[in-house]
From TrEMBL:
SUPFAM superfamilies tied to this protein: S-adenosyl-L-methionine-dependent methyltransferases
Source superkingdom: Bacteria
Organism field: Rhodoferax ferrireducens
One Pfam family matching this protein: Methyltransf_23
Lineage, highest ranks first: Bacteria, Pseudomonadati, Pseudomonadota, Betaproteobacteria, Burkholderiales
UniProt xrefs under InterPro entries: SAM-dependent_MTases_sf
Coiled-coil ranges per UniProt: none
Protein name from the UniProt record: Methyltransferase domain-containing protein
Amino acid sequence: MDFTEITSVVEFGCADGATLLEIRNKYSWIAVYGFDYQEASIIAAKSRGLDAEVFDINDMHKQASAFVVVKSADVILLLDILEHINMPEYFVEKLREHAKDGALMIVSLPNVRNWRTFAQLFSNDWRYEDTGIFDKTHVRFYAKKSALRLAEHFGKEVIFDYRYSSVRWKAFLQRLAPSLFCGQMYCLVRRGK
């Protein structure tokens, strides 16, 4: 999909709207809309002039308005959000049901197969943290195959990659063994029938 063909982007887990604001500033013709479960985040996003509303994915059956917005979206962003919800497969299937033909879903997930996981396991420990792979709010964990299975709930046309560092020596290691040294994974998925 060419950027000139995109007219609308919806982000779930938009926080203060930084990603949507960046999109709107670079591509002024694209309408952006955000959802987040924290009211403070939505207030911050709205203070930046963004259209946004509170939406709790774990309680989605009570809030149909999000799926109305999804019907017109060319791109759906799920950036570091699916690992925080109870039924991510169900949510992705609901998005597929409501998304228009050709819609693109972009997913980013932390890679649990990272060396940090092995280091904790070998030390006979598993410490949750405030951010990162071991974020204490994560309820799901993904490696490449499980990320692909999740993405296929939206469509079978999936492009997968890891996020590589801009630091040269880190990128070198990551290219040698991406599933071991990369902390993030990405899936681009075209809506399936």
